[in-house]
Amino acid sequence: MSKIARRKFIQLSAVAAAGCFMQNSREAMADELPKLTLDDPMAQAMKYTHDASTVDAASRVSPAADQNCSNCALIQGADGDEWRPCQIFPGKSVNAAGWCSVWAPQA
């Protein structure tokens, strides 16, 4: 693994860990949260897009055509909702059909 890849891994791990340890006094509802915009600096850093089908599968760390926010381990909220909270983007909701570079498979 190159130094750049290790740095990126550590950065993403820190973001994911921060999301795991943040606790709100109540669970946020997606319709109460602002939607994540593509020009948000965090969204750009994580290569977030509202439509996973626009992402080249070969550019993903673990290529899979069916990766999207709705089947990511980090998404929260109710299945079937179009916009849902995500641990990576605290205080914002993401499109369930979206994708970012932190995508992780559900257990």
What's the structural blueprint in terms of helices and strands?
Layout: H1 3-21, H2 41-45, E1 83-85, E2 93-95
Structure described in brief:
The chain has 107 residues and is mostly helical.
Largest sheet entry: 2 strands, antiparallel
* Total DSSP helices: 2
Give the helix/strand class: mainly alpha
Please report the total strand number as a whole number: 2
Silhouette: globular
Could you characterize the architecture of this molecule?
- The chain is mainly α and 107 residues long.
- It has one domain (3-95): High-Potential Iron-Sulfur Protein, Chain A (Irregular).
- 22% of the residues lie in helices and 6% in strands.
- The chain has two helices and two strands, in the order H-H-E-E.
- The protein has a two-stranded antiparallel sheet.
- Strand 1 (83-85) and strand 2 (93-95) form a beta hairpin.
List keywords for this structure.
107 residues, mainly alpha, High-Potential Iron-Sulfur Protein, Chain A, 2 helices
